[in-house]
Model the fold of this input.
Amino acid sequence: MTMTKTQRQIFKGTLYALVAGCLWGVSGIFGQIFFSTFHGDALWVTSFRLIVAGFFLLFISAMQKPMNFFDIWKDKSNLPVFLVYTVFGVFSVQFSYYTCIQFSNSATATILQYISPVFILLYFAIFHHKFPKKKSIFWVFLAMIGVFLLITGGNVSKLSINPIALISGILAAIAVVFYSLAPFNLIAKYSAISVAGWGFLVAGIGSNIIHPVWQVNYKISIESIALVLGIAIVGTALAFLAWLQAIKYVSPLVATVAAATEPITSVLISIPLFGLKLNFVTGFAMVLVVVSVILLSKAEGEG
Done:
């Protein structure tokens, strides 16, 4: 069966979002090894990954289109949107997510962040009076249930909720909405590499005010440097670049749900690497997420 142009775009966007989720999952494994082995500080990692990702993407941008390198700064009307994307999106999602981990644990932080599709639905309903189809809402919530089961294995005792963790986790979910919606017009005018690169660099400068990268509190070695570079390049620069490409073709709702491949990737890598046992609940949860993503993408393609 031949796909229409719209269906091809949705397929392309969904694929980019799936890739972004997988890269975030790989980055999560890097982070787990780094924190368990070297006991580094989460805020230091945030400052480092943003700065390195910014320079990495801007270097590529300068090589590709040197004459357009500063274009995003030439139009002053870009500044408000860019600052919203950078401050309330890029920086806030990193800072809030790691704050939630600090006051709870990674399972709690990930689940709270994955309520972001609900906020995206609310945004379009309140501000654009766009109400999704009932079956789209069904697939969104089914995917969220899958993520919950995948991370907890159905055991709620793995969650750790206190007021600070709850607030920071919800703020991380809201920040996902900002970095999904705010850059839409910017990436339509400029390259995704340029938008992401400048966003990371500016957010990284802000993050370094809170925790400078030169205040290192772990043992520097080839392994530790390789891990944090992996987090910065694979899990930040390349993952967010794939994400920005995704939202060019599909709605932020589909992209956010499709990026639930992050915990799936983490689980699959953890099986050979950490000896994680795959049980029925985990397997069922992965199937639930994958099926939900496919059917949500199909539902959007139907218009």
Observations:
- The chain has 14 helices and no strands.
- The radius of gyration is 19 Å.
